[in-house]
Design brief:
Layout (H helix, E strand, L loop, with lengths): L2 H20 L8 E8 L6 E9 L7 E7 L12 E3 L7 E7 L7 E9 L5 E3 L3 E4 L4 E4 L11 E2 L2 E5 L2 E5 L2 E2 L4 E2 L3 E5 L4 E5 L10 E5 L2 E5 L7 E5 L4 E5 L11 E5 L2 E10 L2 E10 L4 E4 L17 E5 L2 E5 L12 E5 L4 E5 L10 E5 L2 E6 L2 E6 L4 E5 L8 E7 L2 E7 L6 E4 L3
Antiparallel strand pairs: 1-2, 2-5, 3-4, 3-6, 6-7, 6-8, 9-35, 10-13, 11-12, 12-15, 13-14, 15-16, 17-18, 18-19, 19-20, 21-22, 22-23, 23-24, 25-26, 26-27, 27-28, 29-30, 30-31, 31-32, 33-34, 34-35
């Protein structure tokens, strides 16, 4: 090969190398194409996303980020779900838990590239459900009158609500009505034997009990099979109203309450329907409540243990302390305070949690971690006087109002 040919080839190779080196590497960005939110409940939602192009800088992590404000970012934000690195365009989704009920959120897809830089898709707004549905109102009960101090119990999938004082006419009532969630209807049943305001209601073995109220000591038992009321052994403590109570494992429990306009109590009693007898139990107070007596307290049962708290003391000051009763030991133990001072609220338990409803606020107690959660923006403006649970759903009714709205709460 001639010297001239060799020089030509060398020059050609040099030019090719120069051209190759002068070409810049092609750069392109990741493309986030969509975000949607589905299967929204009170506390959960499913986020779905799509990435159509993987950028030249790669993706070392991707996922979702959300907050209460528009255009959320990863900066100081614990609300994210990470799905890791991704090498190819893909659709992806994640179920997000721990959201607040009845709350508006903003969510975005995020990606992080090899340089550690974050990119985001567009912001998507959604709102969790509030869990409340309005049911058939109870307007037939003392229509248009202001009612205070009704009571309730549940037997075989129906709730029974009765008693209370018609404040407009200053008349204590003994009517009793049954509510069927299946038909969403109210029907009147036999009147109670005695008119009662501020009584305790509970059910044991297919029969309902209305205990004390209106400063009385009597116990009225309702049998739905024949729609009749009968009198049982009197409550052995002093006659009272606005006591607190519940039923556990075939026994009824009643305590506290007001015995006159100036005196409240903290005694506590157990009722056995099989023997029709009462037995005094550990005081709701002595060396436990630091001597605080109370009336208008709230009570419910979770997993075989009873809970009582709130109410008003002897100075008519509202309380927020909260206590657990274990019938196997007969002892009380103090638990986390209710987040608000509270009295005469609707109360019920669902699953492993207890609930208190005070006007537009819902307080939820979980005994597993001894902690309360607060939900707000409930549509009822007045505090309901009765609450009950049937088949995994709860109902509150009889607010301090001339209207009779009934609301159903579905935690799912």
């Amino acid at each position: 090969m001639s010297f001239k040919s060799t020089n030509y080839i060398t020059l050609l190779l040099f030019l090719i190398i120069i051209e190759a080196c002068s070409k810049k590497e092609e750069v392109f960005e990741t493309k986030i194409t969509s975000l949607s939110v589905s299967d929204i409940t009170l506390f959960t939602a499913v986020f779905k996303g799509s990435i159509s192009v993987i950028g030249s800088d790669g993706i070392t992590d991707h996922g979702f980020v959300w907050s209460l404000t528009e255009n959320p970012t990863l900066d100081n934000n614990p609300n994210k779900t990470s799905l890791g690195a991704i090498n190819n365009p893909a659709d992806f989704e994640s179920k997000v838990e721990g959201l607040e009920a009845n709350t508006e959120y903003f969510a975005r897809i995020y990606t992080i590239n090899n340089e550690g830089n974050a990119s985001y898709g567009g912001s998507f707004k959604f709102a969790t459900k509030d869990g409340w549905n309005q049911k058939q109102d109870f307007s037939a009960y003392a229509t248009g009158k202001l009612i205070d101090g009704s009571t309730s119990f549940v037997i075989d999938g129906k709730a029974y609500v009765g008693g209370g004082r018609n404040l407009d006419d200053n008349v204590v009532l003994k009517q009793c009505w049954a509510y069927s969630p299946i038909t969403d209807t109210w029907s009147q049943v036999a009147n109670m034997i005695y008119e009662r305001q501020g009584a305790v209601g509970f059910a044991i073995d297919g029969k309902g009990y209305v205990v004390t109220g209106s400063y009385a000591r009597d116990v009225q038992q309702y049998d739905p099979t024949n729609n009749t009321w009968s009198k049982k052994a009197d409550f052995p403590g002093e006659g009272r109203f606005y006591a607190a109570g519940f039923a556990i494992n075939g026994k009824g429990y009643v305590g506290a309450g007001r015995i006159n306009s100036n005196t409240q109590m903290y005694d506590f009693w157990e009722y056995s329907p099989s023997s029709d007898q009462w037995t005094q139990k550990a005081l709701i107070g002595e060396d436990i409540f630091s001597g605080i007596v109370r009336s208008n307290a709230l009570g419910f049962v979770i997993n075989g243990k009873g809970y009582i708290g709130g109410g008003v003391d002897s100075n008519n000051e509202r309380l927020s302390d909260f206590w657990e009763y274990d019938p196997s030991t007969g002892m009380w133990s103090k638990k986390a305070d209710i987040p608000s001072i509270i009295s005469l609220a609707g109360s019920f338990s669902l699953g492993n949690e207890g609930y208190l409803v005070q006007a537009a606020s819902l307080y939820i107690y979980n005994p597993s971690n001894n902690a309360w959660k607060t939900r707000t923006n409930f549509k009822m403006t007045s505090t309901p006087s009765v609450g009950f649970a049937i088949d995994g759903k709860a109902y509150v009714a009889m607010p301090y109002s001339r209207e009779r709205p009934v609301w159903q709460y579905n935690p799912n």
